[in-house]
Amino acid sequence: MHGISDSSDTWITRGNNSLALTLAGKGYDVWAGNCRGNKYSRKHIYLDPNTDNAFWDFSFHEFGYYDLSAIIDTILHITGDEKINAIGHSQGNTIFYVLGSTRPEYNNKINLLIALAPICFLQNVQPPLSTLINASPAIDRLAKFLNIVEVLGDKSLIVNILRNFCPTPIIGYKTCILGIIFPIAGDDIEEFEPSFVRTFFNHFPVGVSEKDLIHYAQVSLRRKFANYDYGTEVNLQMYNLTEPPEYNLNAVTMKISLLYGVNDKLSTVEDVAILRRKLPNVIKYVLIPRKKMNHIDFVEGLHMEEYLFPYIFDSLNENN
């Protein structure tokens, strides 16, 4: 499962060196899911994502509770298997923690979750991301005033500008990668070469709800992995509580391998340590030795087969 504003493309953008193709080449049956709102997941029985704001009333909670459970059930139905091995990147791990805590019966349908750059707690992120998070209440009010419900959509003007400008030699790399991506994700020039910029932006970003971004900001500001905070009045209607309930991570009993990087500015070493303490069944806890390992290297690094894939296959082979 992919990360925020990403899609299943993330597992194949490096061609034969991508994780999905590497797994398939070794005989694994590979399924790549998409969360609602990205370019592959915009259909609805009666809502139009382009005109109906109600379509965008979701965050990572709905991804985990509804979307991920449906994906897992579909795979098990088609294959006839009883369990799956799962791999998530970034938000693609958050949703498994939501699922395991809110629908605990699904813990038994997952043999193993390999969590790449896991996101759950965000209280140790640094600027510029922390600056945006601190400003998120004001940003949320402005978005509601401007009626903005989708951010960085695949067909949006801003994404179109990125796709045309960022591949521009030298200035595009300096502005988009050195100036935007690396300050948020961590820098690693060796693994994100200029010739990859066009491919990267052709497939990312591809759409996310404003509510999803605000939910993550709430998790960071409140220092709690909890349901969406609607404010006291609506919280009472939704949860019968004045504050949103925390997700019970102790109920996430599936086996989990946590893989993280020292240079990852989104999934920080400190926040992954908090997650490890909260989860009851962490079977591997691996700090990738590569000193420059950032958030993107886990899915789109140039030499992933050298510094990442061995740890993935170790987990898979030890938990067949």
UniProtKB/TrEMBL annotation:
InterPro entries associated with the record: AB_hydrolase_1, AB_hydrolase_fold
Domain AB hydrolase-1: residue ranges: 2-118
Keyword Hydrolase: yes
Top-level division of the source organism's lineage: Eukaryota
GO terms for biological process, alphabetical: lipid catabolic process
Keywords linked to the UniProt accession: Glycoprotein, Hydrolase, Lipid degradation, Lipid metabolism, Signal
One of the record's GO molecular function terms: hydrolase activity
Family, per entry: Belongs to the AB hydrolase superfamily. Lipase family.
Name of this protein: Lipase 1-like
Gene expressing this chain: LOC106115513
